[in-house]
Amino acid sequence: MTTLSPANRVGGATREFVRHRGPVTAVAGIPGSRAVVSSAYDGAVARFDFGSGAVELLGYHDHLANKITVNAAGSLAASSSSDYSVNIWDLGRGSLARRLIAHSDDVEDFAFVDDHLGVSVSRDCRILVWDLDSGAVLRAIEGHEKDVLSVNCVGDQIFTSGDDMTLRVWDLRSGELLRTWGPFDQETDSCAVDPIHRRAVLGCDDGVVRIFALDSGKSVAEIAAHASGIKRVAVSPVSGDILSAAYDQRLLVWDAESLDLKAELDSRPTTWERSINWSPDGAEIIAGTFDGTVLHWDSRSGRCLGELGERGAGNACLNDVSANAAGEFATVSDDGRVRLGHFQAANATWLSDAEPTTGPVLANAVVLDDKHGLVAAGCHDQKVVLFDKLDGSLRPRWELPLGEGPINCLRVAQSRGCEGQIFAACYSGAVVCIGPEAEILSRARPHDGAVKALRLHPEDRRGVSCCAGGSLRSWNFAGEILHDFPGHLAIVDDVDIDPSGKLIASVSRDFTMNVYDLSEGRLLRSFSLGRRSPKAVCFFDSDSVIVSNYWGSLTRFDWRGDTVVSRCIAENGISSLSRAGDHLIAVSYDGGAYLVRPSDLRVVGELRGMRQRLVPSPLITPAAVEA
Known about the structure:
The chain has one helix and 58 strands. The strands form 15 sheets. A four-stranded antiparallel beta sheet has the order 3-4-5-6, with no helix packed on it. It has a four-stranded antiparallel beta sheet with strand order 7-8-9-10, with no helix packed on it. Strands 11-12-13-14 form a four-stranded antiparallel beta sheet, with no helix packed on it. The longest helix is centred in the C-terminal third of the chain and has 5 residues, at 622-626.
């Protein structure tokens, strides 16, 4: 176990980390108490006590912690992680009891059957049944065709949903598939079970809550609940009321009997939808935030009762970067601030930072455009925010709500006649073109699912984009599809165009990096990335492609030959890469911006928005980090 209760020294000052330094992915109540446990993207597991106000970090995973659940007795918690493990925590002692290792990709969820049995699901498409006393796998269940994201156990049945757009029921003892609902036309990120009314509840990416009878399998109802993708559904353990949370930032409670809207929770801009949950007694609703804190609401009135954890500090987990040839760069982060920095020779300096006039909100996308003197940010609340860049400072100009879900990527057109137009890649599947005075010029839908990234040709009126559904396409500015690029079998995380405009490179959750001819749509090379999930790709020059991953490493491929160079530079995932003259700038969820020499991937300059961990976790070994 890693406990950060002893004082730690940073920058000459003695202090403790008693809060998450990353977004809180999940919160679960401990029965019979006023305490909850949480998991977060800093890899930590924490305990928050609403009675005393105390916050304690129990320990760390080697990587992102995606979910946390508690058994019925309140004696054990299970945290699921992108380090491919499940940690079982003894809540009485506040220590790590056991580590479950058998998955070969991110573990996304875990459910306790009882104190001795548990079930986990993973992006390796498998369901594993565990003996919690010995740590042995009792059964591996296969059948899902894509990543499995959600699991519930009721009696002798397992309920799972995931990226193959199905909800499935399995026999716990035999592993036999008992029933499949779907495939639906959209992703199904979250499922829940109501044993009181014998119903299964499914949250879908079209904003609809779908409800099915457990005994007959028939559809009971469809609730048009949200205007964007649902990231979480949960059922009250007392009443069966349904909680739904979506990217439209509405948190809704539906009456178990009438299925009418019963309450809407007070909105808090930092709430992460995927983390929301019921308290064990059903009286409250709890959730985590991008700021590393925990919120709770009265479940009847929807009134927010308070927030636990350090307020206002924010988490400078850096999510995107855009740089110019002189080493100046812009970055955005979970704390909702846009930062300007500069790497020059041996000097590294933060120049300024700013936030939208309506207040800070998580931003995933940024673009710096020297030609037009602007920086644009794309936010979780579906807005594009434009800043004028003047002498190293940022001045807000306008904010524009797009209504297309969170914005994942922004780019500025340089082609003749379209200079200064901003293209936004949206969760809804749309690519929106915006004029310099905040006018929407066009909306195209090149993909059926969330657009993860886009790039624009340096001269022509065309672009390329990739999707959570696995598609990779080029299109012209009129919205016409030019080419489908075959080859990826899972989420395509990022794409880049080489400086000449002739080639593209893409990375996917199928653990491959592909290089294509842009004009012909032809696959030229494909490279294996091992078993480390990629995040960003940069076509640094016509011969070199650099890939980052969620483990803090960079890999450079000389794609025409076979030379490969790898180096770990960060303590968490590297979210984004950008060319900066003769160097590369990489930013990380660990709060660092790194100036990298492309030839050997060594860091030659560093700026920090924050430090995510004070001391290395004993669970992390150098061998694990370098693997």
